[in-house]
Amino acid sequence: MEIVDSRCVLCHGREGESASAIYPRLAAQHPDYLLKQLKDFRDGRRKSDTMSDMVKGMKDEEFRGLAAWFSTRKPGFRQPADADLAGVGKYIFTKGNSFSGVPACVSCHGTNGHGTQQLPRLAGQHPAYLEGQLKEFGDRERTNDNAVMHSVASKLTALEIRSVSVYIGSLQ
Ligand code: HEC
Ligand code: HEC
Fold first, then answer.
1. Ligand 1 center–CA 34 separation, angstroms
2. Nearest ligand to the C-alpha of residue 18?
3. CA 153 to ligand 2 center in whole angstroms
4. How far apart are CA 1 and CA 66, in angstroms?
5. Residue 148 CB partners (closer than 8 Å, separation 6+)
6. Is residue 136 over pLDDT 90?
């Protein structure tokens, strides 16, 4: 896709594989979620200086094409994880933390972190990106649709954030 090659490839890769850990993987992400995020970056609802510049002036129609492209790319990437950290992360992901009121991530994002039409896929995402987003949700610095995830992320400790991110990154 032309627009991918000229505008997105540098950071997210042609197949949405995002070779560098600071840029989120887009491959196999749900199209409705992608479309929503692109509009929110353009319209200033989700703050990111980088992404707002990238999509400035783009039309909904172009966003639909981009969402269709990246959502149909094969996922197939995962990060090898430190086993001890991933063990803690798996507990949080599948059971939450009843002592601090953290709900299990699987209850919304699904057993394998594949998400739903409305909820983003998390499986195989770069841990560094996940960790950053969880911190932003906790502080309400992720500015669009943060109500649900704020109530989750604000209850996570730094160790829980690190470990759940590492575990999710290892999911296929
Ligand atoms: C210069 C690097 C760069 C380029 C080029 C770029 N992006 Fe991004 N993109 C980022 C960064 C950094 C983020 C994370 C923003 C944040 O922290 O909220 C991001 C986030 C996203 C997200 C949100 C993903 C999620 O899981 O919520 C989408 C969707 C996205 N980019 C699509 C695109 C598309 C489509 C293009 C091409 C039109 C593009 N990006 C070009 C750097 C880039
Ligand atoms: C009650 C439902 C619910 C639960 C439980 C939940 N989430 Fe979410 N999560 C959401 C919603 C809704 C969004 C999308 C927010 C948006 O549209 O901007 C989201 C988005 C995210 C994102 C951003 C993904 C991206 O690509 O930028 C991450 C990371 C995330 N959740 C991690 C987690 C983790 C880790 C847990 C468990 C500790 C968890 N979530 C539990 C509903 C939930």
1. 10
2. 1
3. 9
4. 8
5. 108
6. yes
Which protein residue has the closest C-alpha to ligand 1 atom 1?
Answer: 11
Contact between residue 126 and residue 132 where contact means Cβ atoms under 8 Å apart: no
Residues 8-24: b if buried by 16+ CB within 10 A, e if exposed:
beebbbebbbbeeeebb
| Residues ≥6 apart with Cβ < 8 Å to 149 | 134, 137, 142
Place of tokens 């996570």: 156
pLDDT of residue 71: 97
Query: What span, in angstroms and rounded, lies between the C-alpha atoms of 20 and 43?
Result: 26
Residue 16 Cα to ligand 1 middle (Å): 10
Backbone angles phi, psi at 36, to 5 degrees: -60, -45
Ligand 1 atom with the shortest distance to the CA of 46: 18
Binding site membership of 149 for ligand 1 (Cβ less than 6 Å): no
pLDDT in tens, 64-119: 999 999 999 999 778 778 999 999 999 999 999 999 999 999 999 999 999 998 89
